[in-house]
Specification:
The protein is mainly α. The protein has 2 helices and no strands.
Length: 74
């Protein structure tokens, strides 16, 4: 009887561990990945819309002025 009890106990603990991993995935990983994918898609869609709505070509004439404009904009 003793080996059967320990096997049942091990099986129960294994199932409990799997449930905890499933909970971790559903509560942490899935929302995090969804947020990341959603932002990537939103940035991509916004960039496509803006280039369609306002077709502008950016030409760097001076690297120093370009970097200064980036610092000033931030």
């Amino acid at each position: 009887d003793e080996p059967d009890d320990s096997e049942d106990e091990a099986e129960r603990e294994w199932r409990e561990s799997l449930k905890e991993l499933e909970l971790l995935a559903s509560m942490v990983l899935v929302p995090f990945l969804g947020k990341w994918v959603g932002r990537r898609c939103a940035y991509w869609a916004w960039a496509k819309f803006m280039t369609w709505k306002y077709p502008v070509d950016v030409v760097k004439t001076s690297k120093a002025v370009y970097e200064l404009a980036g610092v000033a904009g931030a």
